[in-house]
Amino acid sequence: MIKQNFSIWDGVYKSFNEAGGDLDFFDSKYWLGKQVGIIEKALKIYSEHGFITKDYPLPLIISMMLDCKSKLKVLDFGGGMGLQYLEVLSKIPNVENKIEYHVVDGESSINARPRQMNHFPNLKFYSSLEKLTTKIDIVHIGSTLQYIEDWGGVLKYINQQFNPEYFVLSDLLAGNIPTFVSHQCHFDKKIPIKMAGMSDVEVFFNKNNYNKIYHSKFCASLLDANKLPNDALPEAYRLDHSLNVVYKRN
Question: What does pTM read for this prediction?
C-alpha cells in the first residue's frame, strides 16, 4: 500500500516573501464568518452558565495572580473577537470586575465581532499595539505568533512597552526543529506560517530575564489526527504537537 501524505503544511522556505501565499486570508469573509459563528456559540454557552474551553493555561494564571492582586490587566495579542475572554469568565468565579481585558487584532476581525461582545465593560478592542498605553500584568498570545514573520520583534516591542509579569503562549508551533517558513494549506489557500525552533524562543525570553515556569503539549484536533498532520514536510521539520508555555519575569 502506498502511504499518502497527511498534511496541512507544505514546503520549506526562508521567508514569507519567498513562500508567497494568501497573506490576507484572515481578512476574508470566509474566515471572519467562521469566527463569528464560534463566538456566537460561545456566547450561548456562557449565557447558560456552561464552560468554554480550549485548554489554554491563561485562566489558571489569572486565577493564581488574583490570589496576590485585587485587579489585573491582560493583553490578548491576536485575541480575535474575544473568545478567550469568554473562557476566562466561564472558568473563574466572579472575575469580570477583577480584570481589564485588552484584545489586539486586525481591524477586520474587530469590526466583525458580534454586538454582544460590546456589552462587557472591561473588555476593550484595539487594531494595533500602539493604541494600547496601559500597564499590563499578563500577555497572552494564542495560536498567533506563527503567523508573524518577525515574531521576535513583536515580542521585543511588547516586552519593552508593557513589561508584563507573565507571557502565556498557547498553541505555539515550536519544538525541536529548525526555525523555518512553510505554507498552511486551507482548501485552495496557502497561508505563510513560521514554525520556530524552541531554542530560538528560549533565547529571547532568557535574554529578557524571563523564566519558563510551565511547558505542556497542546493537543489540537486537526483532520481528526492525534498528532499534527505534517507528513508533507521533511522529517527534521515535523512537530508532533504544538505547545502551551508560560514565562514569568525574574
Answer: 0.93
Q: Does 3 fall in a domain? A: no
**Domain that includes residue 171, residue range:** 9-249
Establish if 109 belongs to a structural domain: yes
CA dihedral 12, 17, 22, 26 (to 10 degrees): 100
Asked whether 79 and 171 are in contact (CB, 8 A), the reply is no
Adjacent-strand bridge partners of 192: 183
| DSSP H helices in 48-168 | 58-65, 83-91, 107-112, 151-162
Q: 99 - beta bridge partners?
A: 72
Q: Indicate the SS3 state at residue 237.
A: helix
The x, y and z cell numbers of residue 200, run together, are: 530560538
CATH of residue 107's domain is 3.40.50.150
Which string of b and e fits 51-72 if b means at least 16 CB within 10 Å?
Answer: ebeeebbbbebbeebbeeeeeb
Give the number of C-alpha atoms closer than 13 A to the C-alpha of residue 165, restricted to the C-beta side: 12
Specify if 190 maps to a domain: yes
Q: Are 212 and 44 in contact (CB under 8 A)?
A: no
Mean pLDDT of 209-226: 80
CA distance 127 to 175: 30
Q: What is the mean pLDDT of residues 165-193?
A: 95
The answer to whether 171 and 125 have CB atoms below 8 angstroms apart is no
3-state helix, strand, coil in the chain (%, to 5): 35, 30, 35
Domain contains 1: no
CB 63 within 8 A of CB 19: no
Number of domains in the chain: 1
Span 120-132, mean pLDDT? 97
